[in-house]
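Show me any protein, keeping tokens residue-aligned.
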Amino acid sequence: MSVLVEPSPAAQAHPHATRRPEIDGVRAVAVALVVGYHVTTGQVSGGVDVFLALSGFFLVHSLVGQVARSGRVRPLTSITRTLSRLVPPAVLVLAGTVAASALVLPETRWRELAGHLLASATFTENRHLVAEAVDYAASNAIASPMQQFWSLSIQVQVLLAAPVVVAAGALLFRGRRRRFARPAAVLAVAAVTAASFAWSVVATWTDQQVAYFSTLPRLWELGAGALLALTLGGVRPGRRTGVLLGWGAIVALVACGAVLDGAHTFPGWQATWPVACALALLFVADSGGRHGVHRLLGLRSLRWLGTRSYALYLWHWPVLVLYLVHTGREYPSIKGATAVVLLSLVLAEVTYRLVEQPAAERLRGRSPVRVLSLVAAGTVPLLALGAGTTVWLDREAARVAAATDDPDYPGAVALSSPVVATGGISGVEPLPSLSVIRDDHPFMPGAWCTVEDDLPDAVPTQTELCFSGSDDRERRIVIVGDSHAAHWLSPLADLAERHRWQLVSLIRAGCSLSTQSEFFEEGTPGHEGCVAWQSRLVERIVSLEPDLVVTVGTRTAYGTDPEILPPGFLEAWQQLSDAGLPVIAMRDSPRHLHDVPDCVAERGGATDRCGTPRSWVYSDDLLEAADAVLPPGVSLMDTSSLFCTDDVCPALVGNTWVYRDDGHVTGTYMRTVRPLMEDEFLSLAGW
């Protein structure tokens, strides 16, 4: 979302000469699509792509105007002008979002909120979301109320870099070489746009979730707008062409979100649809006469909405997300959707009148140094808040790690006591604290890891291998599979140290030791990479020459769905059995219908209502049936007693929280299960 949809500097000097009121209408349509689709369907509308193209278009007008007037660009002046328009409304929205989130979001979301605050305040939210897109653990978190800053971050990164590049180019083509400046600019922008588009197609195919938020795969959308400004900025089509092209573009733009699944296909070639619509509307302008689309786009109501589109874009997302959290809904009701839109419009109007417009006017004539100082004064408190919260949470995490051997936190051991007590200890706060629970992952202490690229002629994918213990140890164990296999890293690392084994992990989020993709459906992001990884997994395991392979043995489900032993598991185990490798398959850990930490936070510690009946999780008949189909050398270890009593799989055991979301176990709890599993594990291994 950009506020840089403004006349060029030359036009500002003569405002009546080139005023284009239909641009505000384009912005209004784009933001209406963004808000409408988010509030009603949650889909991607293509509206953001329109703003990216508009940003490129008006960026060129602004910079070319400076060159035309003075023969050069003052980068610092351009940068401060951008910041003076973008930062004040952004600071207000971020401050309001933090205040509201502190009241609405549970303590379990504070670290996430602090991270997004730091990223949004520094216009790196898109990079933060890229990191979350490749972090499977983050996929279970609710959408951040600051996530809308991703597109603004991309634009700011480009808008801050472009004046420096253009300034260097202006110096290079000054004097007699100035006549070559425009052709050189066209060629340079065209080359960058083409390269970005090609990379966008490739990146979207290989990892669409990462490409969606990344700057380079999105750069071509700004480049397309810039090319239009450089080549056809002063050209208009004939009246009949203008009518057909203008109305066709507006209809196609409105239909884009309903036809394309932008959330799973953008920013690849499919994103050319909304970008092309934006370029067509910019090109057509008012050339259609009295039947042109500019008559619609120039309506006062649309121009009003267009001038407030930046503020509306920033406000609608936190209002929507916090409404959904507060009500516990996945989608708003009709009344709720109406309330979200109306409140967002009110906040946008207040922001535009009291902050955005006054700040831009007052900062425009100030020196660059003063503008930067004022911008910093607004953002520093937000950065201090985010950094301070992160430091405090890190200290909380360190306190959790230090309590590993504390008798006040027996964890799973409490399940083996004469009187089973699954709750907490009076007067002692359970661990890990809810503020850091989502970062409490099982891990191998002291492990070192390598990342190997797979064959170049295959689907691009990588394999991470982590090693704990030296190669000269008596035995080597390989633990392999998805995030539920990773649960066993902590207890197996403890066992490996006690018995002098080497432990090797082959973990990939969402990818089991199976001949089939168990979680990623065909055609969805991650499917092809997972299948490629699985296709070479057995060969890679065999090459490690392990004495034992450990993996997940069943797949638990949610609610009334039964626990299963997937056929793909059996087929992969058979391949390992044929290679002479023994396998211990650990029965899967419980999954819940709700996010357990959020449930605990919302119910104020009433943990008895946050567990799940054991009968909803496990099918004990499955174990008896499995004995008849397991390949030779494969053992299925029943781990259900490590997480559940005869009746329930509780949220709190031995004063230790068991789950960090709806189905992943905390590292703190998993470090307490070793005493309960050691004898049976050694027996199944034959050691």
